[in-house]
Amino acid sequence: MNIDSTIISGYGALNDIGYLLAGKRQVLVVTDKNIAGLPAAARLMAQVHANAAGVTLIDSVPPEPSRQDVARIVAGLEETRADMVIGIGGGSVLDVAKLLSLLCAGDAGITLDSLLAGVKPRYKTLSLLVPTTAGTGSEATPNAILAITEQETKVGIISPVMIPDYVALIPELTTSMPARIAASTGIDALCHLLECFTATCANPVSDNVALTGMKKLFANIEIAVSQPDNLEARLNMLWASYYGGSAIAHAGTHLVHAMSYPLGGKYHIAHGIANAILLAPCMAFVRPCAVEKFARVYDLLADGDATLDDDQKSRALVDYLAALVQRLDLPLKLSQLAISPDDIPYLAQSAIDVQRLIKNVPAAVTREQIFSIYHAIR
Fold first, then answer.
1. Where, residue-wise, is CATH 1.20.1090.10 in the chain?
2. Where are the domain boundaries for CATH 3.40.50.1970 in the chain?
3. What is the 3-state secondary structure (H, E, C) of the chain?
4. Rg of the chain (C-alpha set)
5. Which one, out of 85, 88, 252, 325, has a CA that is 20 to 30 A from the CA of 140?
6. What is the pLDDT of residues 94-108, one digit of tens each?
7. What CATH number is given for 179-376 in this structure?
8. Residue-wise pLDDT tens digits, 26-66
9. pLDDT tens across 268-308, in order?
10. Which residues contact 101 (CB under 8 A, 6 or more apart)?
11. What's the CATH number for 6-173?
């Protein structure tokens, strides 16, 4: 897939995007109330108002948005056409912004329901995505994930048309993240990178971006969590997240994400938290079928032992992943999320049903094996 976004990146880049807005008649800004109140976001909005003739602000995007949430947003728009859609926020906000870039483009026959039914859009409104977390990589993917409440799961709307025209990686917009969110979104990025690197559909392009992203992530995630004002670490995490999204666009995630979907869809567990609990157990399952690739990832660690053979490195990587999640003070057990062992049969069936991702697992996997992974972290 061709990702041809123009990327604006670096300290102070917040002041360099006004030219993108010059002459725009109607700009739609999508965010949430927490982001809208940040000083850095206010500076960005000042540039929008100074350069665009008309601005519509949507600041009501909830975490893990559902089909109904997006339908309500669309129904509340007085003007359904826009010259530009700007998304400022985490993955949920960026996914909604990408959907609105389709729905506000005047493409005949394109509605939210038709997109969910698989109708392919032909074009979109000009778009700029500004991530405020370093995890989802939504700014680099052709995907938008929605919760389908009645089915207690999530689905992905996927179209290369949704790739944004512009991406701004601005570390100043990420410094207000609480440590837990910085940690969980960082682990989400790691899941993207590692799953795509080991997926059945991995290829030289996805391998290259995944390795580049993981090297940045391993070197910076703990610094970014413990030192929120460290702009260098925050920028490197934004790039790691972007590389994770790019890896998704060229390959795809697999077991961690398939198993985390029902945790989000039914129990509304934050996506990064669900992934953190599942990361090491799922990678322990995958490891025997990806020893050489795990060893290559282990070699990216600054304190790795170069004297180990590939099998030893692959096992050491799984241990490192478990220890990293623990050091970041993220949950390790389903019981910490108030999920009962009685729910595991439902979770296992829901996960195996996510065949779009299960087919990417580099090992044959059954419902019973998925049940065992959930059971081990009950």
1. 179-376
2. 6-173
3. CCCCCEEEECCCHHHCCHHHCCCCCEEEEECEHHHHCCHHHHHHHHHHHHHCCEEEEECECCCCCEHHHHHHHHHCCCCCCCCEEEEEECHHHHHHHHHHHHHCCCCCCCCHHHHHCCCCCCCCCEEEEEECCCCCCHHHCCEEEEEEHHHCEEEEEECHHHCCCEEEECHHHCCCCCHHHHHHHHHHHHHHHHHHHHCCCCCHHHHHHHHHHHHHHHHHHHHHHHCCCCHHHHHHHHHHHHHHHHHHHHCCCCHHHHHHHHHHHHHCCCHHHHHHHHHHHHHHHHHHHCHHHHHHHHCCCCCCCCCCCHHHHHHHHHHHHHHHHHHCCCCCCHHHHCCCHHHHHHHHHHHHCCHHHHCCCCCCCCHHHHHHHHHHCC
4. 20
5. 325
6. 999 999 999 999 888
7. 1.20.1090.10
8. 999 999 988 888 888 898 899 999 999 999 999 999 988 99
9. 899 999 999 999 999 999 999 999 999 999 999 999 999 99
10. 85, 124, 125, 126, 127, 162, 164
11. 3.40.50.1970
In angstroms, how far is the first alpha carbon of the chain from the final one?
A: 38
Q: Are 72 and 99 in contact (CB under 8 A)?
A: no
Please report where in the chains the tokens 């995505």 appear, as a residue. Answer: 129
Task: Identify whether the C-beta of residue 105 lies closer than 8 Å to the C-beta of residue 159.
Answer: no
8 A C-beta contact, residue 56 and residue 25 = no
What is the spatial distance between Cα 251 and Cα 211, in angstroms, rounded to a whole number? 13
Phi, psi of 7 (to 5 degrees): -105, 130
Structure tokens given for 222? 């703990």
Task: Count CB atoms within 10 A of the CB of residue 87.
Answer: 31
143 forms beta bridges with 158
Query: Is there a contact between 373 and 256 (Cβ–Cβ < 8 Å)?
Result: no
- CA-wise closest residue to 144 among 244, 272, 249: 249
Q: What does the pLDDT look like over 322-377, one tens digit per residue?
A: 999 999 999 999 999 999 999 999 999 999 999 999 999 999 999 999 999 999 99
